[in-house]
Design goal:
The chain is an alpha+beta fold. It has one domain: Dimeric alpha+beta barrel (Alpha-Beta Plaits), CATH 3.30.70.1060. The protein is 38% helix and 33% strand. Strand 2 and strand 3 form a beta hairpin.
């Protein structure tokens, strides 16, 4: 499963977060991509891939102390999967 996660970092804990990320103390293997908003670099936009929602919650629990706010979490799909769904939807319209 793929998840879109948008969260605001607690900048008062930024140094500690960086240390834990670089030391490997925080698991990053499920992170597909990570970016920050140009106009608000405290906000991170990430794509994570996990087996299920429970695994996502377990992994996110490690990071939540470093978040000031979790803004959004959405399950997402790959473009080809979306294409198949949309094609089926179009077939039902005709």
């Amino acid at each position: 499963m793929l998840f879109y996660i948008k969260a605001r970092i607690d900048i008062t804990r930024l140094a500690e977060l960086g240390q834990k990320l670089f030391s490997g103390e925080l698991e990053r293997s499920q992170t597909v991509s990570a970016y920050c908003l140009k106009d608000d670099p405290e906000v991170g936009v990430n794509i994570w891939e996990t087996e299920n929602k429970d695994e996502l919650n377990r992994l996110l629990a490690q990071y939540k102390p470093y978040f000031a706010e979790v803004i959004e979490i959405q399950e997402i799909i790959k473009p080809m999967d979306a294409f198949v769904i949309l094609q089926k939807k179009l077939s039902g319209i005709k």
